[in-house]
Amino acid sequence: MVHIREAVIEDLPNLLMIYNHAVRTSAATFDLEEWTLEERREWFSHYGGPYPLIVAVVDGVVVGYSSLSPFRQKAAYAKTVEISVYIDPKFWGRGIGKILMEEILKRAKELQYHIVISGITAGNDASIKLHEKFGFSYIGTFHEVGWKFNKWQDVMFYELILPESSS
Fold this sequence. Notes:
alpha+beta, Aminopeptidase, 4 helices
């Protein structure tokens, strides 16, 4: 059974392991060097309140996480956020991404965001399929914007316009 909860500082070693696996093996992130625990602690400090960071827990172990981050720093972007979802590869294909996506989008609505943006590296078909399942629409591609694994990587952008809150 998958349990979703707010991330806590004690989750950092698992979050770091999951993220660093993506750094080493995929173009899902354009980081080229693995993060240290101290760097991840600084990253963690930016979450909470209007920018939730949630984790998926199976048998007491964090196996994935999702977050909402500011899209851009200018004030006019305040109602737009960027979503991230990362899963421990040992748990891919088990629906954990779907569960995390469902919960983080629920929180985005509760926080009254208007737009959720996702940048997905071309070729990440599982992520594209997940986003489309939740109603995200393809809005364009930034071609050859990242150099990783000895080749240029394209980033495809998807957006979800959230329904207006009735409250």
